[in-house]
Amino acid sequence: MNGIKIRGTGRCVPKKVVTNQDLANIVETSDEWITTRTGIQHRHHCVTESHADLCLWAARSALEKAGVTPDQIGAVIVATVTPGTACPSAACLLQRDLGLPADIPCFDLNAACTGFLFALHTMECLLNASPRKFGLVVGAEQLSRVINWEDRNTCILFGDGAGAAVVECREGWPSISAVLGAKGDDELLRLPGLEAGERSFIAMDGKKVFKFAVEAVPACIDAVLEKAGKTVEDVDFFVFHQANARIIDLAVRKYHVPPEKYYKNISEYGNTAAASVPLVLSELQDQGRIGPGSRMLVVAFGGGLTWGGALMEFA
Ligand code: COA
Fold first, then answer.
1. CB of 300 shorter than 6 A to ligand 1
2. What is the pLDDT of residue 314?
3. DSSP annotation of 156
4. Strand 203-204 to strand 237-240: parallel, antiparallel, or no bridges (unpaired)?
5. The pLDDT of residue 198 is above 90
6. What pLDDT is attached to residue 140?
7. pTM tops 0.90
8. Is the CB–ligand 1 distance for residue 201 below 6 Å?
9. Which sequence spans correspond to the domains of the chain?
10. How far is the CA of 270 from the centre of ligand 1 (A)?
């Protein structure tokens, strides 16, 4: 199978910033507790922006940076657990709003916080079978819609946003060596959806999810490196799902990753689920810290339960 590489990235976050102090005004918590336990200081929540707006602005920016025109796109996947409408999918709305070809697959994918990685792997498969060699992968969430504002265990954690990547598939390029997994569990992390009736809120056993994550992250790193035949030294940058700064700190300590080879933006955005990984990629590209030739090891985990890793290169 021919591999995919990133051509360009984009992102969009809503304007409204919610501080830890804002949350301390509505639930029994404090800036100090949230900062030390999670690393989060702010999160952005939609007020006027819709899920479709976030997707569109992130995707437009990624296309522009990639120098790719809508007619070159061969497939669109939006990874999300909070689409504005179940039908039409967020990906179909992008097809319309970006003026993409009508003879390509466009669909949403739900793998919670691992969604962007599931989508990259799926896109690699799709582009191998497509006459068009560019694909658009978006991770977008409006988690503020599913927050229970009376639950201090969860309401402090989540934010809204979208990140996007335009990828290219070329003969001879190595596969991204994706390693993906799932294990059905509705106790650790749950977002009921339609069965809830009127409103649907996230519920989570934070301690158990934390334990799952600190085992899943190194397992994914080891499995990806083994599949790709690479070592930690072959990786230019580690991109982690931003769920808790302590989970990232444990991983970088275990693999002796120096500060210049990983990045945390959780203090600004909180946990944005499927948007988390592409938001990191987009900020890193804008800062010039990754670009043509960079090899990134991307790792994520989340509800489902799901987990995954991949070795992504920049074209
Ligand atoms: N403010 C103040 N106190 C809080 C609080 C808040 N926002 N949330 C919980 N607490 C309290 C708890 O009630 C508990 O009190 P108790 O000891 O009197 O019962 C105490 O703080 C410790 O709670 P605990 O759940 O053990 O904290 P923790 O150190 O495990 O941190 C999380 C909680 C949620 C930050 C942490 O478990 C975590 O990040 N888990 C992973 C979450 C995750 O990654 N989710 C997304 C998956 S993609």
1. no
2. 96
3. T
4. unpaired
5. no
6. 98
7. yes
8. no
9. 1-315
10. 14
